[in-house]
Amino acid sequence: MTLTTFLEVLAILVGALSGFAEARNKRMDLVGVFIVAFITAFGGGTLRDILLDKRPLFWVLHQEYAILIAVLSLIATPVLNASHKFLPQRLIVIADALGLGLFSIVGVSTALEAGMPVFIASMMGVITGIFGGVMRDVICNEVPMVLRDGRPYAVCAFAGCWMYLAMQYVGVPSDFSLWVSALSITAMRLVTWAGDIRLG
Amino acid sequence: MTLTTFLEVLAILVGALSGFAEARNKRMDLVGVFIVAFITAFGGGTLRDILLDKRPLFWVLHQEYAILIAVLSLIATPVLNASHKFLPQRLIVIADALGLGLFSIVGVSTALEAGMPVFIASMMGVITGIFGGVMRDVICNEVPMVLRDGRPYAVCAFAGCWMYLAMQYVGVPSDFSLWVSALSITAMRLVTWAGDIRLG
Amino acid sequence: MTLTTFLEVLAILVGALSGFAEARNKRMDLVGVFIVAFITAFGGGTLRDILLDKRPLFWVLHQEYAILIAVLSLIATPVLNASHKFLPQRLIVIADALGLGLFSIVGVSTALEAGMPVFIASMMGVITGIFGGVMRDVICNEVPMVLRDGRPYAVCAFAGCWMYLAMQYVGVPSDFSLWVSALSITAMRLVTWAGDIRLG
């Protein structure tokens, strides 16, 4: 298993985890838990691929990811209830920040390969990073958290995407710029979260 | 008119009917009634075709179905008001269960023809069967019923899709397995509904 | 700048403006303001292009429109707060009616060029005209205004689309029928709004 695959799976698990938590809050049943987790984990990338007209979709190529979420759904509610005091908020935020960074940079690089102009590519990166959570909140009948809590989240993704675009422009090797910018997004998110920095 | 066409039209009418009922509850106007009914009847199949990148869409090939819903929208509200005591809940549940079975199995077989792996194909079946109702509830600003009421609904569709996949795998003729699995979904839904069986 | 481009930009600005207003009402942050404005301005056309499988999308070809909305988002909240008494409701309704007419007729003509049957083409026109607002309201956790307030809005778009289709059928030059039907939608909307006419 390569490092990329490892982080990809981690990002999906984190997405699913936040879906499990939201579905539990809404007192959903087993089916609701699976669907909300699935949408949270894959919604952003799926929307990006639909906008780019790219097929097959990510989770169609890797049906093992969908199966993984289905299996986890079966055990999510009891485990989450039991682990409540062992799963600190801090850990979830860290994992989520890793997912935000990775998904966003995969999104911007996919869009760039598909020939998108740079501003659109940066938007595709942000869409990939945040729209899983937006769809989760819409289906759970909430105003999406990312649109209203004032904490830098999409803004971190946006800044990191432009860091990636700038590094590509000046000729930095693709692998290196991918990792640096993804981790920069994660770092920006964690620093602003820890410092409780808010936008106006 | 073949039996398939007859059941297809029945499934669409049932979808539209549940859209009419929901739109009336939300006190929507004529346009709202049409749009909600349309989304309920065609939303699941449309999402499936977008995910599979399949065109033209089902309702584009059959514009008579869209016209039918438009005409019904004009008379839906007065008729629903008048027929309140003549349209028992039981009848709606039976028709809806028929629609769930038919749409789900059409969905899984379409996905299989499009070369999807089996688990993804079963998910496409469930998506086709339930997402019309999910979209109806999202646009009506409700947490989707199918995600939270604990009654086996998506689970029946999922089980029936796997029955279809298994019968295809062992070489049962396609037409026969289609009908048996679609009716099995309908039967599972009706039995669990009548027995008030709920998932955890 | 041609008249078409001018009206196109005007329609986008009006869509964005109604997104800014809604996002402010929901106390969204900067990111929310941008995303809601973007979805309102481009949601209808994007959904139409996805349903027609048409790429590249409108706003991908014109990334300057997306940049424009991003820049306006930065100044929208303070300007809207300051201009509250200088931006009468009447002006917004007029601009929005212009946008409705233009978007709807562009939608129906795009669908017709893509080979859609006429009733579907008229629906694509209405979708293009109204679904930006529908998505804005869904993401802001409201039942979409256009589905429930009883004022002729989608109905005006629908009537204008059929006027365009009829003029195309009898051989009226395309440019002329486009302008006449777009302005007719605008006029119908304004007259019914001014007269407070409501559907049942």
Characterization of this structure:
3 copies of one chain form a homotrimer. By secondary structure, the first copy, chain A, is an all-alpha fold. The first copy, chain A, has one domain. In chain A, 77% of the residues lie in helices and 0% in strands.
Write the layout of secondary structure elements.
The structure is a homotrimer of 200-residue chains.
Chain A: H1 3-25, H2 30-52, H3 58-61, H4 63-82, H5 89-113, H6 118-139, H7 154-169, H8 174-194
Helix pairs in contact in A: 1-2, 1-4, 1-5, 1-6, 2-4, 2-6, 5-6, 5-7, 5-8, 6-7, 7-8
What is the 3D form of chain A? globular
What order do the SSEs of chain A take from the amino end to the carboxyl end, as H and E?
Answer: HHHHHHHH
Estimated helix fraction of chain A: over 70%
The number of helical segments of chain A is 8
Strand content of chain A: under 5%
Question: Oligomeric form of this entry?
Answer: homotrimer
Low-confidence stretches of chain A: none
Largest sheet of chain A: none
- What is the terminal-to-terminal distance of chain A? 43 Å
Number of strands of chain A: 0
- Mean pLDDT figure of chain A: 89
| SS content category of chain A | mainly alpha
Biggest interface between protein chains, with counts per chain?
A-B, 26 and 27 residues
Whole-number total of structural domains of chain A: 1
Work out the radius of gyration of chain A: 16 Å
Protein name (chains A, B, C): Trimeric intracellular cation channel family protein
Keywords (chains A, B, C): Cell membrane, Membrane, Transmembrane, Transmembrane helix
Family (chains A, B, C): Belongs to the UPF0126 family.
InterPro entries (chains A, B, C): Gly_transporter
